[in-house]
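If you are new to this repository, start here. Below is one unmodified record pulled from the training split, so you can see the exact layout before writing a loader.
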Amino acid sequence: MKRTLTLILTLVIFAALAVSAAAAVVTPAEGYTAYPVVNNENVKFYTVEGDKEIKATKLENAALFGPKGYELQIWWQAPSHLAEFKFGNDTMSQGVAAHGEMYTEITFTGTAIRLGTHYRNIAADLGTSSAAKVIVDGKELPMVKDALVTTTEHNTTPTIFFEATGLKDIEHKVRIYNAETKFAGTRVNFDWYEIIPGTGKDVGGNPATSDAALAASLVIVAAAAAVVFTMKKR
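And here is the target side for that same chain:
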C-alpha cells in the first residue's frame, strides 16, 4: 500500500515539475567543492532498523529501493530543477527522497560540510518532509532553522539546510535522517552537498581539541616551564 501511494505521489510531483526546464548547476560557496548524492561512492544509505545497507542497484528515475521496497527513492534525469553534475560523458540531475525508516551517510575528509536541496514542498502526510536531523561523528548538530519549511508548493529555490564548519581535518561520517514529526510517511529531499576538502592532517589528534586550544595549552606549558627554570636558577 505504501509503495503504491509513493508511486502515485511521485507521478504527481513530476507532473507538477514538468514545466521546469532550467538546469540546476550548483555553485558552491567559496572554498567549497560540490558533490552529488546519487552515484557517489562516498554516499551510502542504510535502514534505521538494523543498519542494513540499501543499494541503489539501478540508476532509473523515481526508482525505489530498500527491504520494504520504498525506503529510498532516487531521482536520475536529464538536466532539470535538481542539482546537475557530470558523470563521465553524461550530464544528469539527481537527488534522493529519504523515508523516515532510512538514513543517508556521507563520508568525507575536510573541515566543513553543507547540505543542500533544490526541492521543497509544503509538508503533508505521505508527502515532503519539512525537518531533518544531522549527526556528525556521533554528535547531533543544529540545522539551519526552518530551512526545509516552505509556504510555496514545489519550491525549487536552492537551499542550504545544514552547515558545519571548523571541523578537525580528519575523516568524518555524516548521517542525515528524516525528522518530520507532524506528518506520517514523508520523505526528506536533498540533492547535493559541498565540503571544504582536507588532507587528514589532524588524524591521531584529539577531535575535541581545536588547533587554537592546543596552541594556547602549549603557551601555558612553556610559561610554566620558564617559571620553574627561573626559580631553580635563583
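Two things worth knowing about this chain: Residues 6 and 12 are 10 Å apart (CA to CA). DSSP finds two helices and 15 strands in the chain.
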